[in-house]
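User: Here's a chain of 381 residues. Predict its fold as tokens.
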Amino acid sequence: FVNIMKFPDLFPGTKIITLEENYRSDKPILDLNNIIIERATETYSKILFTKRRGGAKPLLVCASSEYSQSAYIIEKIRELNRNGIPLNEIAVLFRAGYHSFGLEIELARSSIPFKKVGGFKFVESSHIKDILAHLKVLVNSKDRLSWQRILLLLDKIGMQTANKIFDAVTDENSGYKGLFTAKSKKQLSENLSGLKELFGRIDPATMSVSEIGDKVTDYYLPILREQYDDHPKRAKDLEHLLSIMERYDSLKEFLTDMALEPPNTSIEDSMSDDSGGDRILVLSTIHSAKGLEWHTVFVIWTLDGRFPSSHSINNPEELEEELRLMYVAATRARKELYFIYPKEVYDRTSGMVLKRPSRFLDSIDGRILGKQSFGSFSYNY
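Assistant: Prediction complete.
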């Protein structure tokens, strides 16, 4: 980008030709796009226009919670479908891959198939599977695969030893607490001490789902740091998982929702996959959506501290890059464009409550960007 901006200085006499007529989006969307990009400190001046008349005004939607954010999108998708808009003409865009985790759960519950581009599906991520495995044995102590997964994370425990431990725990006939009483050699017992300590701090009968999740995550974070070079990014995924767990009153219900799998796919960084035809909704990072277009676009988590991220707010260069990302997202829509954010979100990293819409959108005139609220209740399963 810097090279493009410096190009006229590097090559005197360069003629700049601006391509301003837009054949993709309706006028209200272009009006908003022009305002967003005006805020960039470095840009070539141009005003997008179209000869088409009419069109729907873009909306900034304040949802009462993350669940309401997902519920709003699902409600709108069904409405669009009833009006003849196929799923593949609808996209949900986000700044970071983990931003779609909560939505993926609700789409699965609603049997809406999707493909995710740019990042793994929530339940496909190995670190998420690790956390879920610890939770599964609390609910079903005879889940051999989950026991194997959590035991193989420990030092000096292989598959054969893991199976022996599982058999010994099962023989105790006391659920996951059989780990405390099952006989084992001294060295093996020392390797299991951390896991025993974890299970000793957990009481599913008296603790909330999120409290259990906190205990498991605290235990797992040192393992995460040791096993993954990109552990800060994965830790952010776990933080988001904990926020999802706060919706649930039942650990069993939470795990049931985690197991829901509609016919969908995930593609690491390309939109080349066309599996499912018009029956597949598109979830995509904004980076992976460049150059593409849809009838309707939802941009989620447009919350200050999420988009832009809290890390970029005090860095002018990074903030500028995030503004351009917002512009890219807004220019993907042809007919309808929605920006959605949950009203209040506790950020575990900073210890702050995030409640302001993205600074890139907050002060835009209501005649250009409409405002709407959705949902007023807390939802627990």
